[in-house]
């Protein structure tokens, strides 16, 4: 995606300090079959990104990361409401404490749930196709938690319109998902994801023809959710790694 990135000075190569009390700068409007999509960055650009939020839906922390990437990459960035017409998972119910809550979370991820990954893959692909129809020459996608799974599956779909995908503290990590991956992958798990699956995935994608464009970093000092809705930007270490993650995503999309 690097040929579409404006790289005028060093400032475009790093994310400025993040804010704990952040007010998102984008707008919401319908797009590509969704009633609610968060738009940030230029209205039209040769490069576009799709953000797939985590199970908590739209949150200022996730939107701040999107705003930063859109500005630094000079990219049109969209974050669709993948759970519509359903609702995100309640923030105060994670992690689930009771057997009933655990069962409900499994249902949320299951075939009839709002966060069933395969259901969102086609919708993500449709958004990427629409962005290209609207003039984007390159379209990347990044996602958190279940959204990381969605991105990997979308990058592995036949004739995917995506040019690069990234998964941040991804849920349901599986090496089998990357067997048919046909675009570069940025993979950024936390300490709470399976190190075994992470290493298996790295082995598979290292043999791909686009291996030089892949990227990975294991945030072993961070928890699942540190870069999205559960980020505590008043906590110094979390803030530092949040900034590092978005700088890493920035550099990944610049080269991929």
Automatic annotation (TrEMBL):
Residues 37-255 form the Dienelactone hydrolase domain. One of its GO terms (molecular function) is hydrolase activity. SUPFAM superfamilies: alpha/beta-Hydrolases (SSF53474). This is Dienelactone hydrolase domain-containing protein. It comes from Neolentinus lepideus HHB14362 ss-1.
